[in-house]
Specification:
Layout lengths: L1 E12 L4 H12 L4 E6 L2 E2 L7 E2 L10 E8 L1 H15 L4 E9 L2
Helix pairs in contact: 1-2
């Protein structure tokens, strides 16, 4: 079986107190079906400042990527809530197909 969903990805940094708030909003308030958090080993954003796990330039602000998916309306509503409440400005989304039994 399969169905159409929307995936979203949030780019943020460790140490900005966003992770716990994002997870709480997505799980408890928006009831999003699936969320995964990944820690990057290096990355940069608009500032062009590299955040890295390299021992010579150890950063306490490693990149975090938070992926989630659900029905399109729920994902778009969750994105709006996150942007309004946490001032997140690095979120992307795309349509996908969920394959399940």
């Amino acid at each position: 079986m399969k169905r159409t969903v929307t995936c979203a990805r949030i780019f943020t940094l460790e140490g900005h107190d966003h992770l716990d708030q994002i997870l709480q909003i997505l799980r408890d308030e928006e009831n999003i079906v699936g969320v995964t958090v990944s820690r990057g080993i290096a990355g940069y954003g608009d500032s062009r400042e590299v955040h890295s796990a390299n021992l010579l330039t150890l950063s306490l602000e490693l990149p975090l990527v938070i992926d989630f998916y659900d029905e399109t309306e729920k994902v778009l509503h969750a994105i709006d809530e996150l942007q309004q409440r946490l001032n997140l400005d690095h979120i992307i989304s795309w349509p996908a197909t969920l394959h399940f039994r």
